[in-house]
Amino acid sequence: LFSKLPSDSFKYLGWCDIEEHGVQGNQLRSPRVREGPSEEELFFRKEEHTLKKRKQVTDTEKWEKRLQENWENCAELNLSFQDLGDLYQVENFKRILRRLIRVEKLWLVDNSLTDLSAIRLPRCRELNANKNHFTSFKQLPKIPQIQHLSLAENNITTLSGISDFRHTPLESLILKRNPCEFQERYRQLVFSNLPNLKILDGIPKLPEDCSPPDVRFFYRVCTIL
């Protein structure tokens, strides 16, 4: 079929209970969906009780659907595994992210994301962006209230731009399985740029992490992987 069926607009609606009939669902061979009788017709047929019952069910369903789809005002939202394989999908996904001005906890795992620098999440306190394609901290969204940030399994090669989080309440950061993890004195460099950080890669801040890194030593040493 190359054209939509006449009932296509009803495909997401649920079945209503129909009283006083003996037909079972598995007995339907060619079901059709049609519009029900109008309020005026039900009134003249003296079947107002059917209309009232139908209205009550409809109102309840609408309210439940509104609660489920009120994603713009939600505090916690999981948008992981979206399979964004087309440019249009990516742009539409970013359009959705721009409207999340109230979200506090957001999961964006495994979405092949590369750059969200134009996105601002003013209330986001917890962001999980594991398994994406970020290569720099400057490609992350603006998250001024971030407390817990997880960026495991990306492609962040250097710690350049990490100091942008110095003035945020960031307490926990996960950078496991990123190339920057293999930098010489990696933990010292991170904690020196983020003095308020308490946990890095699941390990609390240790006394040896507090000593300032020797920048000259860092540039003299070459690490071959």
UniProtKB/TrEMBL annotation:
<protein>
    <submittedName>
        <fullName>TILB protein</fullName>
    </submittedName>
</protein>
<dbReference type="InterPro" id="IPR001611">
    <property type="entry name" value="Leu-rich_rpt"/>
</dbReference>
<keyword id="KW-0677">Repeat</keyword>
<keyword id="KW-0433">Leucine-rich repeat</keyword>
<dbReference type="InterPro" id="IPR032675">
    <property type="entry name" value="LRR_dom_sf"/>
</dbReference>
